[in-house]
Every structure is written in structure tokens, then in C-alpha cells.
Amino acid sequence: MGNLLIIDSGHNEYVKGKESPDKSLREWKFNNSMQYKLANRLKSLNIDYYMTNPYPQGKDEIGLITRCNKANSYWKNQGKPNCLFLSIHANAYKEWSSARGVEVFTCKNCSSNSTKASRLICNSIYNGVKNNIDKGFINRGSKIEDFTVISKTNMPAVLVEYGFYTNKLDLEILKHKQDELVEYTLDGICSYFGVNYSSEEKYANGNYNKKAKTTENLNVRKGRGTNYDIVSTIPKGSSINVNYCLNNWFSTYDLGTLGYVSGDYIKFL
Ligand SMILES: [Zn+2]
Q: Ligand 1 centre and the CA of 10: distance in Å?
């Protein structure tokens, strides 16, 4: 049985407040953006996922207990696989205050697996930001608090506060470094599940002229980008000859005419 990540995106659009003092970021938007970026990457890491709050747009809060119940019943229906519940949030303190950094919560009397996940994810996010983005980032550490979503869920559960949208330096990270935050989080999640973490694969520009296998149903397009028309779709698991790669898009002549495919959905044989 595989590993399952239950993603819990905090807050819905009609929540009051919860935005940066300059109104450039609302917390629910950050959380929602992060949940989809995470989900998109989990496939290639062989981790299944379920979202308790997939559509926060145009809605009032759906209720914390509702989200717990959704998580608990999904997990049970799946036969209780190896699982982690991850609630996504961003933090707030006084307007433009100096409080900043990442902290990850577990509930009182939580399982040792929750504690383990909390430490791994907190350290991974902290080290990633400190080493690659901002040396002044702060590790506020693993903390204990009986938040509903992590105390009423039946599986190991953590709540991540990625940084403070009331701090100018953290706000920049929350707005512009989401892909990086996702990778650091995944690194921690993979350590927790004991699976290999590999960062998103991007191919170098150049001539390949090699055979590859499609890892999904693959669209062949008229140009290098999803904004170009689809010429044809090659089924998942087919083999395909790819030629020149530019910005992760390969040219191919397999359809008898020039077409382009994304490098995200092929694997070289
Ligand atoms: Zn929140």
C-alpha cells in the first residue's frame, strides 16, 4: 500500500482579515496555491493525496470539524494506508512586526509519528529558506497546540505556519518563493515516509535524439508551450522519439510532422 498525504488548505475566501497589511497577499490564497503546487508534485514522488478543502474560492469557511471528518473517512475508506495530514497556513502578528519564520504544530498527546513529521518538515523548510533564499529566516521549531484539525484527525497530523505575512521579509518569500517552499516541504515529507526525494526534473537545452516513454497521456502541440494548439495525444506508456529540447519542451517528428511535447511527461528509456 502506498503513502497518502492529506492536504488541508486553511481558510476560505470569505474569511475576515487574514491578509498582509499592504493587502498584497491573503492567507487563503497562499494556502490554496501551495496545496495545488504540492499536489502537482506528489505524482512524480509516488505519494497519493487527498484534499479536505479543494475549492476555497467564493466560500465561507467549511468548518474545521468538517475537514477532520473528511480526512478521517477518506483515510478509513482507503484502508488506513501510511498517512500524514498536513494543514497549510501562513502566520500573522502585529502589522509589519519583526516576528518571522516557520513553525510546525502537533497536538498534545500526539503520536510519535506526528512529532517526527513535525521536526522533519520544520527543519527542511527552515534549512531550505536559510540556505537558498534568506539567511535571516528563523526556525521557530516544532510546537504543541491543540488546534482542531490536528487534534481531531485520526492519522499523524501537523499544521505548518510557513512564515508571517505581517513581516516584510517573510511576505516576499510567501509571495514569490512558493515553488521553493513546496520543494522543501516535499523533502521533509519524503523523509517522513522514507521515500527518495528528488527535485523537479528539468531537462537541459540541447539535442537529445532519444527514445522516451510517456508517463501520462501526452499532448503533442504546435509550439513549445501549453498555449499552442494540440495536434494529437499520445497514450500513456507509449514510446516516443524526441529531438531538440528548449525550456523543457522537446520537438518530435513521430507524427510525420513537427510537433512539441513537454518534458514533464516523458522518461528516457
Ligand atoms: Zn491560518
A: 5
CATH classification of the domain holding 260: 2.30.30.40
Tell me the per-residue pLDDT of 48-90, one tens digit each, with 9 for 90 and over: 999 999 999 999 999 999 999 999 999 999 999 999 999 999 9
Cα of 87 vs centre of ligand 1, distance in Å, is 9
76 C-alpha vs ligand 1 centroid, how far in Å?
Answer: 26
Same domain as 173, residue 101: yes
How does DSSP classify residue 236? T
How far, in Å, is the centroid of ligand 1 from the Cα of 24?
16
Q: How far is the CA of 151 from the centre of ligand 1 (A)?
A: 16
| Same domain membership, residue 215 and residue 164 | no
Distance 27 CA to ligand 1 centre (A): 7
Burial 246-263 (b: 16+ CB within 10 A, else e): eeebbbbebeeeebbbbb
pLDDT digits (tens, 9 = 90+) for 15-38: 999 999 999 999 999 999 999 999
Per-residue CA distances from 204 to 45, 200, 207, 242, 244 (Å): 21, 13, 9, 13, 10
Distance, CA 121 to ligand 1 centroid (Å)? 17
CA 57 to ligand 1 center in whole angstroms: 15
Query: ipTM of the assembly?
Result: 0.99
Tell me the residue range of the domain where 217 lies: 206-268
The answer to whether residues 223 and 260 touch, using CB atoms and an 8 Å cutoff, is yes
Is the residue at 87 inside a domain?
A: yes
